[in-house]
Amino acid sequence: MIDTSGLLDGRAAVVSGVGPGMGRAIALELARAGADIALAARRDASMAPVAEEVRQLGRAAVCVPTDITDPEACARLADTAAAELGRIDVLVNNAFAEEDWHDPFDGFDPERWRAPIDVNVFGTLGLTQVCVPHLKHAAAERGGASIVMITTLSVKNPIPLLAGYAASKRALTTAAQVLAKELGPAKIRVNCVAPGHIRGRSLDEYFDWIAGQRGIAADDVAHEIAAMSALPHLASPEEIAPAVLFFASNLSRVITGQTLDVNCGRTMN
Amino acid sequence: MLLKDKRCIVSGVGPGLGKEIALAFAREGADLALGARTESYLEDVHGEIEAMGRRVVHARTDITDQAQCDALAQACVDAFGGIDVLVHNAFAPDVFQLFEDVDLAAWRHIMDVNLFGSLQLTKSVIPHMKNQGGGSIIFVNSMIIRKILPLQGGYATSKGALMTAAQVLAKELGSHKIRVNSIVPGWMWGPSVEGYFKMMESQTGKSQQESYDEIASAITLGEIPTDDDTANAAVFFASDLSSVITGQALDVNGGEVFH
Predict the structure, then answer these.
(1) Most CB atoms closer than 10 Å: which of A103, A140, A235, B147?
(2) How many CB atoms lie within 10 A of CB B216?
(3) For A19-32, what is the mean pLDDT?
(4) pLDDT, tens digit, 9 for 90 and up, residues B178-228
(5) Which residue out of A181, A245, A254, A258 would a mutagenesis test of the B interface target, given it has the greatest number of B Cβ atoms within 10 Å?
(6) pTM value?
(7) Stretch A13-24: mean pLDDT
(8) Does domain A12-198+235-262 match CATH 3.40.50.720?
(9) Is A4 on the interface with B (CB under 8 A)?
(10) Which of residues 144-203 of A touch B (CB under 8 A)?
(11) What proportions of chain A, in percent to the nearest 5, are helix, strand and coil?
(12) Nearest C-alpha of chain B: how many angstroms from A10?
């Protein structure tokens, strides 16, 4: 494994949406680089094992059960992170919601879009807003702080049945650029990491569903989709998380307002 | 260290970004094969890298000459046993004439260096990277393709072509685990911009600070990125931190243009 120790020494990061997949990989990637981590998710059960892994890496971890659509919960998360870890240098907005993707747009019920918009746009922005004072403080002290939005391939390469999710992440991408402009003078950088398909349980379910619809094997679906990328491969959360580390660290000190597609070359930005 | 024992070629090693990329790579544990037309630049950077305790070779290289490109690749292989990373930093600047006035021979020369020269050097490394089962190729592009300005048509056109070529290579070489990405710098605080500000001062009386402030005011982060900051984006694409990233362009411009 590549030695990233030192890249985030003395830093503290808030990571939202920590479960067994992308959130866990991001938290561990940042911890390996030296950061203490405040973990947020709706359910304590999904965070506790990850917090333990962070501690095994020798870093501090604090779990704060958080529904990011609840402003009070967001405020509690920011306050707890700052109090327990002493600071917030990095915020990774990984929590998301997607609509039930089994139904087509025909017979569209606008309510289906509410969850992705509420969580991915307003929830993310709400959490970001309460973290900004702490990020400003850290930036003033250390010369920089970083916000990373986890977006999606669907922003540019729409997948049928996920209109609300894709639209919400596009809105978030634009909001990220506005925040980059507004927070740049305070040396807070704002960038987006846009993964493609991410290996894990949700992707397996998606492949199973497609396989069922088409009457083929799930493995064949996986191969077919991997073959659409320049690197014929489906990325794991652990392979994607280092891009978040890059934007969290000083290696990207002069980069803001950008989106990096981390998708094996499925789309080229 | 992010590039421990990676064997890296950097073209266009002069006093600016090429040198900073080579030094950043050495800091991260890489061994370097340096190419440039000017021997004295090569010797200077060679000495600095040696002093950092890394292995280094250099070869005078005009990238418009395929034989010299092959020789640079071979020098890396002979010294270190393979090639893991190639950074294309060599370029020809514009002649700063309007399109309607320019002799297109000048644009052809720019294209010969920036596009075909880079592609020739790429051809020199591909067999080695394929043989060893992978590698990373990085093109240094330019903000000129995002923010078109008059008088730099030849340079902009060549870099636009280079961006498309990089994506074609990413697609064609992906199955060999060769990744191809571009960094897109904007203004870069280094010897050439410093020289430009000094020239402005002596010609127009505009102080260097005024020039700096004028440019920095258009940059979101309020400062002109330095060439060593910019080099860190190349470190990222050279390293295994970007193992699932190919065909991408990362703008390194302090937030002057969002992409």
Answers:
(1) A235
(2) 17
(3) 97
(4) 999 999 999 999 898 999 999 999 999 999 999 999 999 999 999 999 999
(5) A254
(6) 0.96
(7) 97
(8) yes
(9) yes
(10) 177, 180-181, 184-185, 187, 189
(11) 50, 15, 35
(12) 18
**A227 CB within 8 Å of a chain B CB:** no
> Which chain B residues have a beta carbon less than 8 Å from that of A264?
174, 244-246
Is the per-residue pLDDT at A121 higher than 70? yes
Query: Which residue ranges form the domains of chain B, and what is each CATH number?
Result: 7-187+227-252 (3.40.50.720), 189-224 (no CATH)
Residues of A in contact with B259 (CB under 8 A): 258-259, 269
pLDDT band at A102 (very low <50, low <70, confident <90, very high): low
pLDDT per position as a tens digit, A161-183: 788 899 999 999 999 999 999 99
Spatial CA neighbour of B215 closest among B191, B241, B188, B235? B188
Break chain A into its structural domains and give their ranges. 12-198+235-262, 200-233
Chain A residue numbers touching B249 (CB-CB < 8 A) = 268-269
Number of neighbours of residue A49 by Cβ within 10 angstroms: 12
Angle at A93 between CA A92 and CA A96, to 5 degrees: 145
Which residue in chain A has the smallest CA separation from B224?
Answer: A254
| Partner-chain residue, chosen from B220, B241, B254, that has the shortest CB–CB distance to A2 | B241
Q: Tell whether B202 is within 8 A of chain A (Cβ).
A: no
ipTM: 0.94
Write the DSSP assignment of chain B as a string of letters.
--STT-EEEEES-SSSHHHHHHHHHHHTT-EEEEEES-HHHHHHHHHHHHHTT--EEEEE--TT-HHHHHHHHHHHHHHHSS--EEEE----------TTTS-HHHHHHHHIIIIIIHHHHHHHHHHHHHHHT-EEEEEE--GGGTS--TT-HHHHHHHHHHHHHHHHHHHHHGGGTEEEEEEEE-S-BSHHHHHHHHHHHHHH---HHHHHHHHHTTSTTSSPPBHHHHHHHHHHHHSGGGTT--S-EEEESTTSS--
For residue A262, which residues of chain B lie inside 8 Å, CB to CB? Answer: 244-245
Query: Is the Cβ of A262 closer than 8 Å to some Cβ of chain B?
Result: yes
Q: How far apart are CA B48 and CA A267, in angstroms?
A: 39
Choose the closest CB to B255 out of A3, A4, A184. Answer: A184
Out of B167, B223, B235, closest to residue A268 by CB: B167
Nearest to A269 among B174, B240, B248 (CB): B248
Cα distances (angstroms) measured from residue A169 to each of A50, A248, A262, B11 = 26, 20, 15, 39
Q: Which residue of B has its CA nearest to A269?
A: B248
